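PT: before anyone asks, these are the final sequences, not the draft ones from last week. 814 residues across everything. Please model them as a single complex and drop the result in this thread when it's through.
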Amino acid sequence: MSNNKPRAIVLSVGTELTEGIILNSHLQYLSSCLNRLGFMVIRGIQIPDILGVFKAELGRAAEECSLIIVTGGLGPTSDDLTREAIAEAAGTELVFQQSIWEDLKKRYSGQKIAETNRKQAYIPQGFKILKNPVGSAPGFYGRINKSLIIALPGPPGELEAMYTSGVERLIENLFSLTVEQVLTGTAMLIPESRLEEELQKCPGRSVTWGTRVTDDRIAFYLRGGSEEERKAVFSCLQESFGSLYIRRGDVEPAQLLSRALRSQGLKIALAESCTGGLLGKWLTDLPGSSDIFWGGVTAYSIQAKIDLLGIDNRLVAEYGAVSSETAAAMTEAILKHCQADVGLAVTGIAGPGGGTAQKPVGTVWISFKWGDRKPLCRLFQFHGSRDQIRRKTAVAAFLLAESELKG
Amino acid sequence: MSNNKPRAIVLSVGTELTEGIILNSHLQYLSSCLNRLGFMVIRGIQIPDILGVFKAELGRAAEECSLIIVTGGLGPTSDDLTREAIAEAAGTELVFQQSIWEDLKKRYSGQKIAETNRKQAYIPQGFKILKNPVGSAPGFYGRINKSLIIALPGPPGELEAMYTSGVERLIENLFSLTVEQVLTGTAMLIPESRLEEELQKCPGRSVTWGTRVTDDRIAFYLRGGSEEERKAVFSCLQESFGSLYIRRGDVEPAQLLSRALRSQGLKIALAESCTGGLLGKWLTDLPGSSDIFWGGVTAYSIQAKIDLLGIDNRLVAEYGAVSSETAAAMTEAILKHCQADVGLAVTGIAGPGGGTAQKPVGTVWISFKWGDRKPLCRLFQFHGSRDQIRRKTAVAAFLLAESELKG
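LR: through. Structure below.
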């Protein structure tokens, strides 16, 4: 992380945030915007509606960074303190702005404007107005010492409309910024520690990395060095872990499978056991999934495998519900019962109970079948909690199906 | 906001937060929890993985509050700085904890544990270990001057599991909080603003409330007043919204349905359309769900309703896939094909596309059938995003089924 980047702080105000009543989406939204512009966001903060706390944060921020964005506290009520706090931190007074008042009256045309709204027409002396195209509270900007401070309203729709319609350009103009090149990738079914170990071994000494770990995957970001160096590090990871598990871009397994199906105009049917519906849930999280998802059977109990899929009970008795034979029979069966082009089946032991010495918790068979071809079956041994094993099963199933579809 | 409350600060660490790559849900979760325990959260902060910034925040926080919760930075990689930062801020060293190392090795049993994981076995001298029941990184707690500092891992599943399984009780004990008598309830399918409106109208002037809003429900906490007064407020809510949607305790819909099935020794089969597997996923999130879940069909496409469930295509053509007739036929069909005791079916329009003037996005039919009885069908009109509509559908289906099972 380079230290010659301009530094920024995002400060959100509202007791509803610090009491945990609402989720603060501004910290992410503005951090992401500022990061893209080339800022290093050194702090995102949320504080209650307390004037003393607010002034202390502003004073500290103005000493540490060149840009402060304040969100919230611009409404008409007594706990909306942003105008007062910024005026006091800047050592100035609030002044009435006739143009804001006229705009407010226009916005309330037909309704009676409350006298408390007059408060919204005041901004700190020497500050400039930022028009709000979608709400009643305008924003404003100015300086506290050398820091640029921009105050934006709290409602996310208003904040984002103001940011994109003018604030971004304002920041670009007031700072001269260079945009950093980043290579983004996704690692799936690889523990963070193993990924880190490999990254340390890969060439490209001037390339640095960051990761973002979610339940289902790790997104990683290669920065610094030349484009060739970043690509070399990425290729090195693919060689170590296989190109099934290391992908370009920040991608989700369901997206990858969905794209592969869509590009070939194919529909998939599912036969799920231990995942209980998770594969179907993930595929149908994506809007428009009816183009690629036909439907499926959740054959959770052995009896369901027999009754719903029509699997021979002697086969299950001989090989067990968790076996390549049963997995293959599940894809055969689902394709026989439905009009999908490809079938995907999973059967395994998600735990915490149900494991044996031969088939411990985490044993999972995945089967994929395309049209009349022979089913492909793969054994996986996953570790972790019930939830983790089920998620890993879904990730592995989607990656396996996608790679088969892509040949 | 009373000023004699103990003060708390939540500090989240991770460059993925300050670069806006991920949303910080911990600030809301922990603020809500701490608020419920009686703390005033004076600041929620997110900072990048920079040791200097981290130490400065810890030092400042320790002067201002009696409880600091740090989230993230406990992984095995070089940008996981929480151990070092807290040790330095506490003026102590990191010490290797054999017991953590043994636990880590156990957790990785069968896999090769990476040498970088050793790092996770160090905690600041004099600090105590907080076991992590679901992940590899343990937490720890101790003091910087007079402030209690608790370090928890970043993955939300791990953090929440640790908080509820022990951290909350630890805080209660160490602060000898005069634990208020609280009546806890859960509101489902009710917007927060409507809940708040009704709470204001209900009797019991000395009863106050707090809420914790998640994707699927609102937990609410009634405090103050006498037990009778709190119960009266709860009854008032039940009268306003119906006892289907207002429940005692902090409960999840899948738990409620699972308990009702288990207590009567019944198994359920599902026929899902717009939810694509979500109902099955939720039911099978619970360990031991094979006692109550038989299996199901995800009839996402119309053809799947016909081929997999055997629904008459003339019925679908006449009434549409989203109709009480189709919903009823889905429960009839799933019970015919399987050996479950009760059937639950959902069919609806989750959006964003597919809505019409007559059946807008959010139109959902839910059908429940118990043995030979006539199917019960209910129409719902939900609002929100695709994800919200699907979640609300699952909540409504589970509540409806549970209430029918309980008579």
